[in-house]
Amino acid sequence: MFTSFQPADLSTLTLVEKRAMLKSLKENIKAHAALVRDAKVAQKLQKAENAETRRQAAIDKARAKLEKLLNKTQPVGRLAIKANKKPSKATVTKLDMLDKANKKPSKATVTKLDMLEANEIAAKFAAKKAV
Q1: pLDDT tens digits, residue range 68-119?
Q2: How far apart are CA 97 and CA 105, in angstroms?
């Protein structure tokens, strides 16, 4: 873009030639300055467009979160964490086993028959107290 010249060349040029060279150099500088200015403006516009895109993406993400919170179709927060946990392995605390020798339920659990029997006994006591 710039024309290169040697300082030794200037001594051989006439005044008219020097003025013409100076004029062309000024025009070249103006054109280059305009190109740099246009490039900076384009860069600023691109930067502003990128910022707007990121801002809009953040807004969309926040709106999606808000919609999810307002829907309440699925648990949110600690309830969601609790719901998504893998269940632990089941542990058996009491066994409903038959005593092999007596063919009766073991003492570790209360069966339905035992509860019915206990209810009958309680009803008898309540009837005796009422009389």
Answers
A1: 878 776 666 777 777 777 766 655 555 555 555 555 555 545 556 666 777 7
A2: 6
The pTM (predicted TM-score) of the whole model is 0.40
Judge contact between 105 and 99, C-beta under 8 A. Answer: yes
The residue count of the chain comes to 131
Tokens of 93: 């605390």
d(CA 55, CA 49): 10
CA angle 97–99–104, rounded 5-degree value = 90
The span from the first CA to the last CA of the chain, in angstroms, equals: 122
Give 53-104 as a 3 state SS string: HHHHHHHHHHHHHHHHHHHCCCCCCHHHHHHHCCCCCCCCCCCCCEECCCCE
Q: Tell me how far CA of residue 112 lies from CA of 31, 102, 115, 124, in angstroms.
A: 100, 18, 5, 19
Q: Distance between CA atoms of 25 and 28, rounded to whole angstroms?
A: 5
Domain ranges of the chain: 7-83, 94-130
